[in-house]
Amino acid sequence: TSAFPIISQEEVTTHRSLEHGIWVTFKGGVYDITKFVAMHPGGDKILLAAGGALEPFWALYAVHNQEHVLEMLSEYKVGELSAEDVKKQKTIKTSDPYSTDPERHPALHINNLKPFNAEPPPELLSDSFITPSAIFFKRNHLPVPQVDAASYQLHIEGLPGGVLTLSLEELKTRFPKHTITATLQCAGNRRSEMNKVKQVKGLNWGIAAISNATWGGARLRDVLLAAGYSPDVAQRAFHVQFEGLDKDVTGTTYGASIPLNKAVNEEGDVLLAYEMNGQDIPPDHGYPVRAVVPGTVGARNVKWLGKIIVSAEESSSHWQQNDYKGFSPGTDWDTVDFKSAPAIQELPIQSAITVPTDGAVVDRSSEEVTVKGYAWSGGGREVVRVDVSLDGGKTWQVAQMRSSEKGQAPGPSPPPGRAWAWKLWEVTAPLPAEAQELEIVCKAVDNSYNMQPDTVPPIWNLRGVLSNAWHRVKVEIRE
Ligand code: HEM
Ligand code: MTE
Ligand code: MO
To answer: For a pocket test of ligand 1, which of 26, 64, 71, 117 has the largest count of ligand atoms closer than 8 A to its C-beta?
Structure first.
């Protein structure tokens, strides 16, 4: 028997405001989460469940089906729901909003199934300059929406010409097709390394929440001009908001915004992409149209794009306002003020070792070790050098940049400020004679001479974003 009092649903229902307390039920337990609401990483959506069951919401945001979340919840337990009320709840069917999600490649390492979040194995990632779409990392916050290409409409608002509505066909035929190769990286890439320093909240990404593709579509600039954009608009509007067609239980869509400058700049290369690697964009990556904002954090590259709004304000979405921001290592959930930090746009310099993987064993008889990895910087800044160490950072050598095609020299540099794609690099070095273990380290430098920090603790932040310390892997040498 339980030490907790039996509580009726009727009583739970009276606790649905901060004033009277916020109570919820989960699997027959009653929880008073009043104190947790302000600390919730998912923002005040949590209030939707006030006075009722968490189950239907967690079916949608299945990121909650993790042990650490359940542990967190258990701290707030205040009672058991009456047996009669538990029975009633069971008769309410919760259909699975993810049942129409597409099939995925079995090689992906799944971080979370619903919504689907997965990364490729690192050693596959560095095998091709262009990441095949099937293994391109996937980061969804919601179910993949079913969009019918024939009836698809893109609305463009906030310009003197009034609302412009384009079909997919019009987007493809009225505007010249432009192709760019651009790397997307999630702000949470390499979060697992921050977790090792001190627990953060977020998906536990390894080093592969980053991928590179060729994108084809209309330039956002051209579409905005057709919708009536002229330079005087820039006197009153500073942002371009994107709304996705993926919705949560309340009908709220995924949304984000970028600076208007980036959108209208001739060299910004922002696309309304309808092709990925030469084919229709796959369902997981935004079919039929997504924003591709090269040089900018993944979160602003809105998939399943439904609406574009030119505005004086940034997007009001949770993901623009209360997530994807960086904070001091000294800031924690009880002190964080999301308004005090800017939304992440351009990302900092990044690099990581894809081969060998941490814990790998190298045979002494092989005499050499080959180290491979990727390097990329945000804002179109070109990676100009990658340094690799086999002894934890005491001595260094410069890695070779690999070309996009095997066996060829690296191609010409991209135009200044438009280095949107990553560089793959490689070093082959003799195994040091005495060592029994290697601590392989890499660090990259971009053309602004930005460099990566050497360790994680000084850049730790509560949400685990912007994790770009020197990447280290340990390798054992077997005699
Ligand atoms: C994220 C806890 C209720 C919506 C999270 C995360 C935690 C958490 C720990 C971060 C998970 C991660 O990224 O690993 C809780 C607890 C709850 C609760 C303990 C109840 C007491 C709810 C409810 C809703 C909700 C009722 C919606 C109606 C979200 C959303 C996110 C989130 C939208 C962000 C997911 C993303 O980043 O994509 N929650 N949550 N949560 N939660 Fe909750
Ligand atoms: N767009 C919509 N509509 N919904 C989303 O959940 N996730 C964003 C962004 N665009 C997202 C979205 C995030 S956080 C990232 S990192 C990238 O999409 C991931 O893009 P990918 O799944 O094509 O790799
Ligand atoms: Mo992301």
So the answer is: 64
Per-residue pLDDT tens digits of the chain, which is 479 residues long: 568 999 999 999 999 998 999 999 999 999 999 999 999 998 888 988 899 899 878 877 878 988 999 999 999 999 999 999 988 877 665 678 899 999 998 889 999 999 999 999 998 899 899 999 999 999 999 999 999 999 999 999 999 989 999 999 999 999 999 999 999 999 999 999 999 999 999 899 999 999 999 999 999 999 999 999 999 999 999 999 999 999 988 889 999 999 999 999 999 999 999 999 999 999 999 999 999 999 999 999 999 999 999 999 999 999 999 999 999 999 999 999 999 999 999 999 999 999 999 999 999 998 999 999 999 999 999 999 999 999 999 999 999 998 665 545 566 778 999 999 999 999 999 999 888 999 999 999 999 999 999 999 999 999 999 999 999 999 999 98
Residues with CB under 6 A from ligand 1: 24, 33, 36, 40-42, 45-46, 48-49, 54, 57, 61, 63-64, 69, 72-73, 141, 201-203
Give the span between the Cα atoms of 443 and 67, in whole angstroms.
34
Contact status, residue 194 vs residue 200, Cβ threshold 8 Å? yes
Cis peptide before 176 (omega within 30 of 0): no
Cβ(301) – ligand 2 distance below 6 Å: yes
| Integer Cα distance of 44 and 208 in angstroms | 30
* Ligand number, closest to the Cα atom of 35: 1
376 assigned to some structural domain: yes
**What pTM was estimated for this model as a whole?**
0.82
Q: Are residues 211 and 264 in the same domain?
A: yes
Please check whether residue 345 lies inside any domain of the structure. no
Rounded to whole angstroms, the Cα distance separating 138 from 284 reads: 7
Judge if 321 and 394 occupy the same domain. no
Domain of residue 386, CATH code: 2.60.40.650
Q: In the chain, how many domains are there?
A: 3
409 and 261 fall within a common domain: no
Q: 45 alpha carbon to ligand 1 midpoint, in Å?
A: 8
Beta-strand ranges (E) seen in 277-396 are 279-280, 290-292, 305-311, 350-355, 361-363, 368-376, 383-389
Phi, psi of 463 (to 5 degrees): -100, -5
Alpha carbon distance 368, 127 (integer Å)? 20
Ligand 2 neighbourhood includes 298 CB (under 6 angstroms): yes
Other residues' Cβ atoms within 10 Å of the Cβ of residue 249: 15
Q: Structure tokens of 352?
A: 């990581």
